[in-house]
Design goal:
The chain has 420 residues and is α/β, with parallel strands linked by helices. Helices cover 35% and strands 18% of the residues. It has 13 helices and 10 strands. Strand 9, helix 12 and strand 10 form a beta-alpha-beta unit. Helix 4 packs parallel to helix 13 and helix 5 packs across helix 6. The termini are far apart.
Length: 420
């Protein structure tokens, strides 16, 4: 196996292993009946464990993550970006709480969802950052299962609030409504409202009421939908800044581009899109019209079991060609069987709707090999009259771009005096 392939594989898995490599964790079970008995379980975040985590740049070496010789001396190298990202958190300690809160499923029925809240160790919180996480495959990658990369912002005085989404954590037995904008955005917003009384209860009420929104990849699209949900239905929430990166804002354009190219680093994202929209929008699709027999036979094991990472699933598919898992009909956007799916794609795309008046930071790599750049282009068209700061460039693959996005957001917040 060549160094370049090794590098790409490690780059894709670096975020998955961040928690185990970059934290010293001790789990403390929280005695809810004694310590949080005055919180309303129907309206508040209910912790089931508490952890202390140490972030240290030296831990990055334990990944065995090596730069590709071709990029080792440049800022695009994965290991260099990771060390740069962790360097400002040397020795910093954060506290995090895993727990549950009540939200609603795609039918509007109440459901307990899990997530994690991360705060600086000293308990001094300036603002809340509402985070929507990127695409995961395995339940062990959910925020409540392992410390997410976005925890780095907690080391700078921010309370990071991050849901697992429906389909992971305590709801791992359910299908994840992948890219279903309304239900996922509401899951994120509901966790924000549940976090407020919890933070006040533990003596960590934010100094300021306005909040940050942040997300990359799937999380970028969800974050844009969260901004829309808050703008349309919760005018009482003051959004200070929306930070989105590498998001599939236009699901139709994403699907069209990927099937035209017949290749992507994560082909498993395609069945996740089809199944997620089918489930979340009650389409009742016949999967034999969309998936080749091998994919139909293994859909539940590979994707719905939540046992495998995106890289694991890609390896089991055995090809990065989309035509290796989709039927000819599914590769033809004019096919009659595609009508309902395309309607669901349109309904859940973030490139339509009113324009929130929040300041927005929009980031995308021109080299993105998973979420095509056309998404950023189409989102920019929608946001033509909005207050937007763009960061577009040759920032490497989708995986490498993830690290760069989080680092850019750190720099942006520092430059504006938002974090210390």
């Amino acid at each position: 196996m060549g160094m370049k392939k090794v590098f790409n594989i490690l780059a894709a898995t670096i975020l998955i292993y961040l928690a185990s490599g970059c934290t010293l964790t001790k789990v403390e079970w929280v005695k809810f009946k004694e310590d949080f008995s005055d919180l309303d379980p129907a309206k508040s975040f209910i912790p089931f464990s508490s952890e202390s985590n140490v972030l240290d740049e030296r831990m990055a070496d334990s990944f065995g993550f090596q730069d590709d010789p071709a990029t080792k001396t440049t800022s695009t190298g994965g290991a260099n970006l990771l060390r740069a990202l962790l360097s400002s958190y040397r020795g910093k300690v954060i506290r995090s709480y895993c727990g549950t809160y009540y939200s609603h499923d795609h039918h509007g029925e109440p459901i307990a969802v899990s997530g994690r809240i991360m705060i600086p160790a000293d308990g001094k919180v300036s603002r809340i950052m509402l985070v929507s996480h990127f695409t995961i495959g395995a339940d062990k990658e959910a925020p409540s299962a392992e410390l997410p990369l976005e925890s780095i912002y907690a080391a700078h005085g921010i309370a990071v609030v991050e849901t697992d989404y429906i389909g992971y954590g305590v709801t791992s037995d359910r299908i994840h409504p992948y890219l279903c904008s309304d239900v996922t955005a509401k899951n994120v917003v509901d966790m924000y409202f549940a976090a407020l009384p919890f933070l006040e209860k533990i003596g960590c009420k934010p100094q300021f009421d306005d909040i940050f929104l942040l997300g990359f990849s799937q999380g970028g699209a969800v974050t844009m939908s969260v901004a829309q949900e808050l703008y349309d239905n919760h005018p009482e929430v003051d959004v200070r800044l929306v930070m989105c990166g590498g998001g599939p804002y236009d699901i139709c354009a994403t699907y069209d581009t990927l099937i035209e190219n017949d290749a992507t680093d994560y082909p498993c994202a395609i069945p996740m899109i089809i199944q997620g929209l089918d489930y979340g929008n009650d389409l009742n699709l016949n999967y034999s019209d969309f998936f080749l027999p091998k994919m139909v036979e293994n859909l539940d094991e590979w994707i719905n079991s939540k046992k495998y990472t995106m890289q694991d699933i890609t390896d089991m598919i055995g090809s990065k060609k989309i035509s290796s898992i989709l039927t000819e009909e599914a590769m033809n956007k004019t096919a009659e069987s595609m009508t309902e799916l395309y309607r669901a794609m349109l309904d859940n795309s973030a490139v339509y709707g009113s324009v929130p008046d929040f300041p927005i930071y929009l980031y995308h790599s021109l080299d993105d090999n998973v979420v095509p750049f056309v998404n950023c282009y189409n989102m920019a068209y929608r946001l033509a009259d909005a207050n937007v700061m763009y960061n577009i460039g040759h920032y490497g693959t989708h995986q490498i771009s993830t690290l760069r996005f989080f680092l850019c957001c750190v720099d942006l917040l520092k430059e504006n005096g938002e974090i210390y």
